[in-house]
Structure prediction request, 897 residues.
Amino acid sequence: MDYVAIKEIQNKDQWLLADIRDALAKCMKCGNCMAVCPIYKETKNEASVARGKLSLIEGILSGENEISADLDHILSKCLCCKACAANCPCGVKADELIIRGRQAVVKARGLHPVKKLVFKLLSNRKLFDIALKAAGLFGPLSFKRLPRKMAAVARFPMPGIDKKRITAPFASVPLRSRYPEVVKVANAKYKVGFFTGCMINYIYTDVGDAVIHVLNHNDIEVVIPSAQHCCGTPVYVSGDKELAKSFARHIINVFESYDVDYVIAACGSCAEALKIEYLHMFQDDPVMYERAKVLANKTYEISEFLVDIVPFRRDDLGQILQTVTMHDPCHMARGIKVTKQPREILQAIPGLTFVEMKDADRCCGSGGSFSVANYPLSRKINDRKIKNIKESSAEIVATSCGTCRMHLADGLEQNKVYIEAVHVIQLLDQSYQAGKI
Amino acid sequence: MQTLYMQEFQKIVGAENVLTGQEDLFCYSYDATPGYSHLPEAVIIPENVQQVSAILRLANQHEIPVYPRGSGTNLSAGCVPLKGGIVLLMNRFDHIIDVDLENLVVVTEPGVIVADLNNIAAKHGLIYPPDPGTVATATLGGTIAENAGGLRGLKYGVSKHYVMGLEVVLANGDILHTGGRNVKDVSGYDLTKLFTGSEGTLGVITQATLKLVPAPECKKSIMAVFKNLDNAGKTVAGIIAAKITPATLEIMDNATIRTVEDYAHVGLPLDAEAVLLIEVDGMPEVVAKEANEVLRVLKTNHADDIQVAQNDAERDKLWAARRAALPALAKLRPTTYVEDATVPRSKVPEFLREVSRIAKEFNVTIGTFGHAGDGNMHPTIVCDSRDLKEMESVKKAMNEIFLSAIKLGGTLSGEHGIGLGKLPWMEQQHGSKVMDAMKSIKRALDPNLILNPGKLVGEC
Prediction:
């Protein structure tokens, strides 16, 4: 049976969509979201844009539509970049409503079989760790490294990965296996918990190294809880709220067991999960909500922490004689709203020339697993970003998110643009290193 | 619609450009107008004039309704496929064909977004003046078909003042070329003007030749607050009488002022009966002279507070209040009706009073803002379309608003078009003879009544 009748769903989960009825009614169908939706810009199809998606969800509530395979497919075509919500004159949080729609789809139809498999692996922390460690060890057999730093291309067809797509190689040894749980400094000013996230632990360990160096350099002790795991965002945005909550519970448990002053993350999406999403997840659970709030209140994105809390040392920065531009990840710009701090860090580096690109906070087209399922479309969106990077005349593009970095690196390679994509914190680390010489 | 026709349409544009899935159809069942929706039977997306011609020929032969659509942002239900049939989606016509700097015209396809044309014009120091609130999303085809205006209407007019020529496909598939690049052109009936503002009822626009004008070198914005509505009215008349034509001369009524203040905290006094936002533009010398003259008129008419923007940041601050008007009102309630009843500018204060009286009488929330200089008001009714009892009052209030605009010598629409929303009052405004004349035109050009049927002139 392809369709699940609305009545069955309403019987089971009437609250699931019914409680967003008022939020949906606020959309006045003005279509302003069309101006900013990266997907609509490419497809020009109403089903791509928030106005269309919200109408379809309203159609479910009114009984005009059913939760069909097509609806599932349409709702999955959203980058969660939040540009529509930021541009909405009526303040409709379309991104959150689309996730609510996905939750209804998951309840009615179940998760997509591929996602089901991936999330099953992801939800088993130990197995996931073994699998990704193995990927790092055996990676060179299946991926060919490219001259560009942290770039590799598949040697033979891989399920879900476009054969031309450039990804980053898995680390031969994950970050958390390379450091002790506590990286001490003499006379520590603060003690912070480092939420590494998956990208930094298994792939971009260079970012993890930089975070630890920079924090230590600022007299901050770094605690890296070994039992930490994925923040749960990929699961949450796919609509499996219950599974996402189990990730959130685990993270809250793990970080509660360490006595740290702050928790930092070096990825906009991870930081947003800890700071904002967990609170959404536990809205109906007062006890968990309070615990999530404690974690949320002490969580900072690394640049936000270095600028607003520490503040970071500027007396011993060395020169970096390069021109740098900044790509703001969606969840930094419109999620946790941290855009000034990474720029302040870059502009503090002596010799570094900072230039703004056009539409710096426009989505790079990655959207996490979106780019796996919709590679050609995400490539088109990314090509616009690469054009803006190129036109900025920068030699380096800095960002604050692993998946953005990976997608930018792919786009730069595909477009033959020889500019490097790095994390902001790597440049700060490099500057401290230069200052020592 | 029969499967057989569908296959023929697929042959014309390719199967991937004929959408028939339930979800796709649902997404083209509405536009930005509350209260109207209907599923089409197919959404067809052509990319050239030959395809449009072939589609219309086939639709005409089988009497299938055709609803041309750009971005679907209009406020008169102009795109809603009320009788099913085909939504003809024109957004693949997205090329600017020629920017002719010697004649200051641009030849463009109708799917180009208005702001994209303006970005290109700006590189040459030019502007395309019609600037509806939806410039960043609306297509040129849609704005031409709806005869859209905007904030600069007083000085620069509406779309029809900039359309010099069109390529149009008639219902029978014939391709017409009207007008051209000539500044002076009095050869024959002005078909260009006829199709401009025809709301997709007479033909499908596939190309347009548009006039560009030099961008003003300099602008000056002034905001004035009035405790007395009549003084604001006298100021508007006084500015015009002083032979000044500001680019923008906007007004907000007390209901709008209170809502904007509550939403944006821009520092407007809650007891003000009106706020005027005035912008003069042009050569620096002229702008300075005109701004002084505007200030004199404001003082003569007892403006209670006057602010002059000295730089771009201050200009943005003054405009913030006006920009917040619609979002602030729209956020009050789920459903928003933005009307555009227009009166001769001397009647603006009288009309605003009428609207406040009507709001009180029927117990509905109405904020009015708009283009005082050209009399184009936007009485904005906010309500909840799910509350049927409230909707009865809204309908009654709307009826009174349109009747009072007509009584004051006004018109149903200054810039949004008639579509379905304002159709019930058309005969009231124009009389049966004019309606008959309009219907004759419709029947002559579209004898099978397939193009956006039932809109603008109604059934005929």
